[in-house]
Amino acid sequence: MHEVSLIESVIALVEHERAKQDFARVFMIKLKLGALGHAEPDALRFCFDAVTSGTIAEGSGLEIEIVPGEGWCRDCRKTVPLAQRFDACPVCDGSHVKMTAGDDLRMVEMEVA
Ligand SMILES: [Zn+2]
Fold first, then answer.
1. 57 CA distance to ligand 1 centroid (A)?
2. Which residues surround ligand 1, an ion (CB under 5 A)?
3. 21 Cα–ligand 1 center, Å
4. Residue 1: what pLDDT?
């Protein structure tokens, strides 16, 4: 499952932070998930406990904030909302929209002790 490798990369980030900050426990991990990305928030939540088990993030909570899709239209030169990847521009109906937001997964915050 794709979501498993996404969480594994989040754990790798947490481990990387621990090397710098030296904390013992993680209470909460907050992610920003693009609405047009390939990961399902429910699937992320579903596999989070299993994937974090035995890692520094074991037992921590998971918060997911959805980032809406956004694109840059080359035809009308505007930033426009994007409901679907490869959608036409909602303003001018042009097809030269480059997705600029809503496609990635980022860790924005974590609570540690
Ligand atoms: Zn347009």
1. 43
2. 73, 75-76, 89, 91-92, 94
3. 46
4. 62
- Ligand 1 centre from 44 Cα, in Å? 33
Query: pLDDT tens-digit profile of 47-95?
Result: 999 999 999 999 999 999 999 999 999 999 999 999 999 999 999 999 9
Report the predicted TM-score, pTM, of the whole model to 2 decimal places.
Answer: 0.85
* Count of alpha carbons within 13 angstroms of residue 107, beta-carbon side: 18
CATH level 3 topology of 2-112: hypothetical protein PF0899 fold (3.30.2320)
- How far, in Å, is the centroid of ligand 1 from the Cα of 101? 16
23-26 long-range contacts (CB < 8 A, ≥24 apart) are 23/112, 23/113, 24/112, 24/113, 25/56, 25/59, 25/60, 25/112, 25/113, 26/56, 26/57, 26/60, 26/110, 26/111, 26/112
- Could you tell me the residue ranges of all domains in the chain? 2-112
